[in-house]
Amino acid sequence: MTASPLPTLMLEPVVRAALLEDLGRAGDITTDAVVPVHARAETALVARQPGVVAGLDLAALAFRLVDPGITVAIDRPDGTRLEPGDRVATIKGPARGVLTAERVALNFLGHLSGVASATATLVKAVAGHKARICCTRKTMPGLRALQKYAVRVGGGVNHRLGLDDAVLIKDNHIAAAGGVVPVIQAARRSIGHLVKIEVEVDTLDQLEEALTVGIDAVLLDNMTPETLAEAVRLIDGRAIAEASGRITPATAPAIAAAGVDLISAGWLTHSASVLDIGLDWQQ
Predict the structure, then answer these.
(1) Active site residue 130
(2) Which residue segment(s) compose the domain that 88 sits in?
(3) CATH code for position 253
(4) Residue 138 catalytic?
(5) Beta-ladder partners of 199
(6) Are residues 56 and 173 in the same domain?
(7) Confidence band for 2, pLDDT divided at 50, 70 and 90
(8) Pick the catalytic residue: 28, 221, 242, 261?
(9) Which of 12, 113, 7 is nearest to 61 (CA)?
(10) Which regions span the lipid bilayer (predicted)?
(11) Structure pTM?
(12) Same structural domain, 102 and 232
């Protein structure tokens, strides 16, 4: 695992909002109707398919917010590779609380584990090359910090966290500012000395323009491995080389072999499949 746990202070508002959405106006009327008040439960979070687990802190928090009497013992922490049948955690306590929190806990756990697993798949695909797998800002609203955490759990690294921590000049910025050189110069005049600038280029001609005025990083968009290799040669260590576009486990090895420093993929966060983890009753 390459990620430090997120502070509970960051997690609680998100989990609390999800629980309130699920509880609606009358609470869990199903569980309240059929489960005795004093019933106790021992359950286990169990993997149904292989992958990398992420999001256990959120799942545990969902159970505890519903009922502080629920205990969560983690058997396989975030970052652990799972096989079908692996017990991820043991949940004990008041049965009503366990059942009420179950769906919210599994929603967070399954989604973030899916992001971590997808990231780990790409990381494995480029093993042996220097390229690192990177996420983007294509995240689900309200979940960015969580999804980017899951990317780190899966062995990837984060791109900028928002619009305010780095300059990333895209094609529409270039069009609006009148060209590659003018847009880089305008950005440099406006930012602080600690802020890095990256520019997206579609062609080698644009790349050469950007290099004439100096740039921290270049986003090489939708280039073939052959063109990427030529771009890396032109950059010659003067900027970070990032490849993006049509990134899959099948295409990533050739892209990494071109010599780029980063490979970014938006689908890691906006389209990753949920990892199937279930809650099994133990008694």
Answers:
(1) no
(2) 8-123+272-281
(3) 3.20.20.70
(4) yes
(5) 169, 218
(6) no
(7) low
(8) 221
(9) 12
(10) none
(11) 0.96
(12) no
